[in-house]
Amino acid sequence: xxxxxxxxxxxxxxxxxxxxxxxxxxxxxxxxxxxxxxxxxxxxxxxxxxxxxxxxxxxxxxxxxxxxxxxxxxxxxxxxxxxxxxxxxxxxxxxxxxxxxxxxxxxxxxxxxxxxxxxxxxxxxxxxxxxxxxxxxxxxxxxxxxxxxxxxxxxxxxxxxxxxxxxxxxxxxxxxxxxxxxxxxxxxxxxxxxxxxxxxxxxxxxxxxxxxxxxxxxxxxxxxxxxxxxxxxxxxxxxxxxxxxxxxxxxxxxxxxxxxxxxxxxxxxxxxxxxxxxxxxxxxxxxxxxxxxxxxxxxxxxxxxxxxxxxxxxxxxxxxxxxxxxxxxxxxxxxxxxxxxxxxx
Length: 345
Known about the structure:
With 345 residues, this protein is of the alpha/beta class. It contains nine helices and 14 strands. It has helices spanning 11-20, 41-44, 81-87, 103-110, 128-135, 146-160, 208-216, 251-262, 315-330; strands at 2-6, 27-32, 56-57, 65-70, 88-93, 140-142, 170-176, 193-194, 197-198, 224-230, 237-244, 268-270, 292-298, 304-311.
């Protein structure tokens, strides 16, 4: 299948190329980058030297293809979605433009009205762990927010089991790497990086809260409160959800819920081993992967618990999930091109 990437010079575009170039069922035929038009891909993404001879082109010369990935800054895809739909039967948008299913909620979260609200119901939310059946054969899939992905996956097992309910606020402490901010005009950035300095991240009212509430809506009206700050790493998201349970739950209750939710999932791994140095999810072990590692810490005496999830923000939080969506949409094996397990040490 012929694949194109619009906005391929940013971090997520580069990660898409890394995953798609060796994919056995697709051929990347065109990549756009307005400011880098004419340059070879490896001049912008040096790790892809020798992997492709593609050059960047402008969006104005895009030709029809089978699948079109949109890796544009937030707000741009919605301006031209009808045009892109004429070019490709299947579209996967990595920005925030089509993640929320309500124009009103979008406007509240992003501070401006949606330019194509009629398109919102056409997009399936691109998190296969929650929306797998809707993604099979779908024509349009949205991207996922990396912080929303880590938070949702951290919570999902206990929400699904009815152990976590909407009767208390969910305080989420999220640590992220510098690549979440992006570094180029096409990176889809919302926390710009300049000269290696990351600007302050949101400590209240992060827009991904709306995404998590939407994902959990079938189980209740959850009050999600994120606090996000940067740490000394390039790739990675580490989410820790702080909450309290009635005294009396046991480790067996947690294991049962997590196994029921995740044992059949190809890209979610339970990491909970009190005897190991690496007994909790660690984002540095997930760089370059499409895996989400989940775990928890629970004190039965006080009822206090912390639910954990670690991902690569460019992998499971962006390009990895997008390729996973493509596999489902096109009828390929879901894990095709996504089995890299990380590097240690």
